[in-house]
Amino acid sequence: MAWSILIVDDSSLVRSQLRAALEAKGAHVVEAENGSEGLWRARENLVDLVVADIHMPVMDGIKMVEELRKIREYAATPIFILTSDAASSRAEEGKKAGANAWILKPVKPDLLWKAIEKALFGRASSLPAMQVGAVVPPNSGGSNK
Amino acid sequence: MSSDKQVLVVDSPNGTLAFVMEELNELGFRVIWVPTLAAALEFIEARPNLSLIVASSAATKIGGLEFLARVRDFAPGVRIIWGAKPDAPAADPAASASPDSLLPEPFREGELRLAISELLAEHFYPPAIADAVKAAALEVLGNIGGFEVEGGAFLVANQTALSDLSAVIPFAGGVSGHLMVGLTSQDARALYQAFLPGVHPIRVDRMEDLVGELCNQMLGRINAFFTERSVSIQHGTPIFIRAPGSTLRYPGRQPSFAVTLKRGETRVALEYYLAHFDRAKLQAPVTTRVLRLGEIRYL
Q1: What is the greatest pairwise CA distance in chain B?
Q2: Cβ proximity of B132 and B179 under 8 Å
Q3: Which residue of B has its CA nearest to A110?
Q4: Alpha carbon of A109: minimum distance to chain B alpha carbons (Å)
Q5: Phi (first) and psi of residue B233, to 5 degrees
Q6: What are the tens digits of pLDDT across the range B159-192?
Q7: Which of A100, A26, A105, A74 is nearest to B291 (CA)?
Q8: What does the buried/exposed string (b/e) look like for B24-56 if buried means 16 or more CB atoms within 10 Å of the residue's CB?
């Protein structure tokens, strides 16, 4: 199943780490550097799940989740907050904004993937069929970028 | 400044501890110099609320053991650094009147500086906070493993040397201050390859990003220590500094707490600066649950 996942984080290291881990599982990854770009990317590419940081320039993750939930297509899309902020009160803010899970950095890629599978279990990919075909086969010589 | 931030230096008039006095002053201590043990005892009996005594053998030739025993009676909490000439008889570390640190003389600046800052660190950074800072750094770097704290953790006066790549995140709220993480370009490159193998070449902005992310994650773990004690903290994104060889001066007189982590030849330098915090909160029981590393909470 080639799910499409949007990663929103101002750290290129985190984005690259997550991209490598998620693409290894066959996912299609879209990246954004801040909440504002995340919104734009989400509108441009209908994704199955969003993983977003909190502390970002331009627009933070909480605000982005609030705005994302106002978009009809993202009313029920799983949104994970991946952050270094361990405070329960902040997690409550995330819940209020519409996030589904709060994950503490640094997360082990396998643990994150299990959570993604759990959230998307039984859901079809939102990727068009041709794009899915280009993503799935490993070592096929094709590219998804 | 609390009244116990005082240091007594016992040194002969032509002694070598002038640099120590200057640095202790920079760290925010009131420094009192006396030339003999007798004068030192007189001072301690009148004002026993001292943090530290640094005594050079030049001023302690006679009556050292008796002096130590009297100090322990009058001021049991005071820490003592004792200078010893190479030909002096070895002190028994188990003896009740032994100093906290016995250093060979002539004093080597680095050795003395480290001993002083280790003994005084708890005046600014109680052991619980010091442990939280070290644990946070080790937890975050634990993903790639093999890191350990190099030497002791020590105090740095409000002026610090910068690495090739540094990231600073200020924080405010129930406590305020900043965390700075610094790496040399070479170490940043090695660490980046450990975190994300196979990327070549590694641009400087990518390495800087790594330093910023380490700073962000470590601060998150340190903040969790305060959050558990119901202290709320707000912080933003990292500020990056590329200024090798330069120094950064902080406002205020509170020193920062420095820790270096080492893995092979790679070193990560941390400087944690607390401008203020409520010590009473450290005694309070842990009331707020925080997320553990890698924990997923479904909302």
Answers
A1: 70
A2: no
A3: B294
A4: 10
A5: -135, 140
A6: 777 889 999 999 999 899 999 999 999 999 999 9
A7: A105
A8: beebbbebbbbbbbeebbebbeeeeebbbbbbb
